[in-house]
Write a structure and sequence with these properties.
The protein is an all-alpha fold. The chain has seven helices and no strands.
């Protein structure tokens, strides 16, 4: 089985961070690779993750960093929040660029139109098409929020 090139990139960047004494990148990539290894051994049988699956792990780790930063900020622990946001910045460099809000609105409007969705009960149809169009360029939560918003507007209007 072939090794994920994305995972190999994470490993080589970890080695470079260690040699360059970049503690932030080193620690972030170590935790991320640990999460990848955990995902590989979870389930009935250990297996090598595909590039898409490794990216999904990185997105999950990124989401955790943002949630932790929010929690730390709310608790008045700004130093820890800043560290989480710095780690999130490292992880963002490994993911495809996210679409801006206007592009997401247009993409969702097209998906709703194509699926002939008429209200919130058609969320599944619209989300399926929107996800297919967006790929990895839009976070699922952000996409779902926009689909829901537009469908509610459609049914109210």
């Amino acid at each position: 089985m072939t090794v994920s090139t994305f995972k190999e990139r994470l490993r080589s960047d970890l080695t470079a961070a260690m040699k360059g004494r970049d503690e932030l990148t080193r620690d972030t990539l170590r935790m991320t690779l640990a999460a990848v290894m955990t995902a590989e051994v979870s389930g009935a049988q250990a297996r090598e993750l595909t590039d898409d699956e490794v990216q999904a792990v990185v997105r999950r780790e990124l989401r955790k960093r943002h949630e932790s930063a929010e929690t730390y900020s709310g608790a008045g622990r700004q130093g820890l929040a800043d560290r989480e946001l710095a780690e999130a910045g490292v992880l963002e460099g490994y993911l495809p660029r996210q679409l801006d809000d206007e592009a997401v609105r247009v993409l969702v409007a097209a998906a709703i139109s194509e699926s002939e969705a008429s209200g919130p009960r058609d969320m599944g149809k619209a989300m399926g098409l929107a996800k297919k169009s967006a790929g990895a360029e839009v976070d699922g939560k952000r996409l779902s929020t926009e689909v829901n918003r537009q469908l509610r507007q459609l049914s109210a209007g």
